[in-house]
Amino acid sequence: MALSARHVEIFIAIMRAGSLTEAARQLHISQPAVTKSLQHAEQRLGYPLFQRLGGRLQPTPEAKALFKAAQDVEHSLQRLNQLGLRMAALEHGMLEIMAPPALAQELLPIQISQFQQNYPQLQIQLNVQQNADIANHIAQGEAELGIVHFPTDAPELAMESLGNSSIVALIRQEHPLASSDVLTRDQLINAPVIWCSGNTWWAQLMARELPGLKREKCQNQVNYFAVACRMATQGLGIALVDRYSIPYLLPSDCKVLPVVPEIHVSLGIIYRRYQALSQPAKLFIKALRKTMFSD
Amino acid sequence: MALSARHVEIFIAIMRAGSLTEAARQLHISQPAVTKSLQHAEQRLGYPLFQRLGGRLQPTPEAKALFKAAQDVEHSLQRLNQLGLRMAALEHGMLEIMAPPALAQELLPIQISQFQQNYPQLQIQLNVQQNADIANHIAQGEAELGIVHFPTDAPELAMESLGNSSIVALIRQEHPLASSDVLTRDQLINAPVIWCSGNTWWAQLMARELPGLKREKCQNQVNYFAVACRMATQGLGIALVDRYSIPYLLPSDCKVLPVVPEIHVSLGIIYRRYQALSQPAKLFIKALRKTMFSD
DNA sequence: GGATCTTACGTCATCCGTAAGAATA
DNA sequence: TATTCTTACGGATGACGTAAGATCC
């Protein structure tokens, strides 16, 4: 018959306290309960752990030998439970996020800093990949969460909407089109739009929503939203980007104008469907949805 | 709230088996019991350990992280209980015996070999010290058991009798005194006895039991019984030694004669009174008493 | 229908506390 | 007498099993 963890716990307390009475005090149980547990343990082992001598206890050599092993048990259980608690409080764990450059540069640092204020010990890994590659990487387990535009629908992946974003225009104030408070789609078609990237969602979106806008007519072409915005602030044209990709700090001589009718962009979060989400991931999604749906 | 060892045990079984049903089978408990334990564990932790997905379980990242720590708990408990069992079977442990040369050379090898047949894995340390020093060494914890003649009565030490031995005479057959079957005390007083040692129990015993025998009259003097016996077999005199100190193998031209009236020698075992005996020590004492009282 | 997990309910073991007893200093 | 361990008894928690229900393939 084997000893239980409770036997071990009580045995250790007796060894440390040196008496049943004191051990009981430290364990917050009655002294007869300690007697019983010890007797039970000794009966299971088949030999005494303590010599009863004049109302006092003297550990046998066997008890001394078992004590070290018992402490190992105690420590391993403590480590397990400490880890369990730390993970509950998100003091231990890793939040792996993969996002395209634009979101990794503007949206996520803000979201992450907010999230990390609540869980200051949580490790966070933010991995930048091209939007089109993220689904594959997530499917291969390289990160737990992917934040994407136009989420793909691979069967391996689950997708949750983070609400609809929209395209806004970043433009210098001196530009003639900057005089109004909004920009119409028609105005944009012949405006000096900075063309973003080749075969990403942006080009598809433009083809659908602004079919009159042709790549050939755009003087400046880049493949990063951040660069497009930077070019716009230098007066090199109008950047048409997701509103979450607008730089946090803009020069005062720049404006951000909404487009009418609005051009919607789906923002979504993807993860492996058959892989349970970690606690940090769940909470981060929750936090993301809350802030993004509320504004 | 912390997880119990039982929670850990069941959690590990689920992780290994991959399903509650199979885990229950391996644990020899019902499947609902496994469900309950898992639910309880998850409730205590505050987060799920498995994702229920189409009737199957998928471990969460938290479960995977806890699994390693859980295995540590399992292993440490296994080690503890294995050690406990091994000590019960005397497969682990050390029997430390201290004895004077004569007993260490003749009596104890026989006793130990007999004892070790029952407990072939038990480690045994046989330490030789002069009889007069053994009590001190035992009191200082240098060995657990001391086998001595004329046991001392230090308050720190407990003493148990191993029965009475007696002095016998080792003598060559051609010696005139060897013609009878016994030797009387009177015969010995003027015989060529080999004087053993200076201030040990032997000299005290002789002074009491054979007061006529004087050291000055003895031609040959040694301080080891074994040497005395060897000298006797070479015809250098009569060795008067404890019967347990007679060599196991004797030349055929030698005889061992009892002394009449018998000269008793107390043989005893000593150990620290306030230090509980180890299981091997207890059993060795028991075995010693049994064989020594039975012959 | 066969597999799995979950819920419900009753039983039993065991762990614990209170109270009294025994031994020791 | 004060302290400690042991024994005895009774209660409550909890772990388990059986049976039935829900869900998925």
How would you characterize the overall build of this protein?
- 2 copies of one chain form a homodimer.
- Chain A is an alpha/beta fold and 295 residues long.
- Chain A has 3 domains: 84 residues, Winged helix-like DNA-binding domain superfamily/Winged helix DNA-binding domain (Arc Repressor Mutant, subunit A), CATH 1.10.10; 96 residues, Periplasmic binding protein-like II (D-Maltodextrin-Binding Protein, domain 2); 102 residues, Periplasmic binding protein-like II (D-Maltodextrin-Binding Protein, domain 2, 3-Layer(aba) Sandwich), CATH 3.40.190.10.
- In chain A, strands 3, 4, 5, 6, 7, 8, 9, 10, 11 and 12 form a 10-stranded mixed sheet that branches. Chain A has a two-stranded antiparallel ribbon with strand order 1-2.
- Chain A is rod-shaped and about 100 Å long.
- The relative contact order of chain A is 0.14.
- The mean pLDDT of chain A is 93.
- Chains A and B meet through α1, β1 and α4 of A and α1, β1 and α4 of B.
- Chain B binds a DNA duplex (25 and 25 nucleotides) through α3.
Q: How much of the residues of chain A is beta strand, in percent?
A: 15-25%
What's the pLDDT, averaged over the residues of chain A?
93
Q: In CATH, what is the homologous superfamily of the largest domain in chain A? A: Periplasmic binding protein-like II
Which second-level CATH architecture of the largest domain in chain A applies? Answer: 3-Layer(aba) Sandwich
Q: Can you count the beta strands of chain A?
A: 12
Give the end-to-end Cα distance of chain A, rounded to a whole number of Å. Answer: 63 Å
User: CATH class of the largest domain in chain A, please?
Assistant: Alpha Beta
CATH topology of the largest domain in chain A: D-Maltodextrin-Binding Protein, domain 2
Computed over alpha carbons, the radius of gyration of chain A is 32 Å
Q: What fraction, in percent, of the residue positions of chain A are helical?
A: 40-55%
DSSP helix count of chain A?
11
Number of domains of chain A: 3
| Greatest interface by residues involved | A-B, 44 and 43 residues
Indicate the overall shape of chain A.
rod-shaped
Oligomeric status: homodimer
Low-confidence stretches of chain A: none
Structural class of chain A: alpha/beta
The biggest beta sheet of chain A reads: 10 strands, mixed
Tell me the series of helices and strands of chain A, N- to C-terminal. HHHEEHEHHEHEEEHEHEHEEEH
Protein name (chains A, B): LysR family transcriptional regulator
Keywords (chains A, B): DNA-binding, Transcription, Transcription regulation
Pfam families (chains A, B): HTH_1, LysR_substrate
Domain HTH lysR-type (chains A, B): 3-60
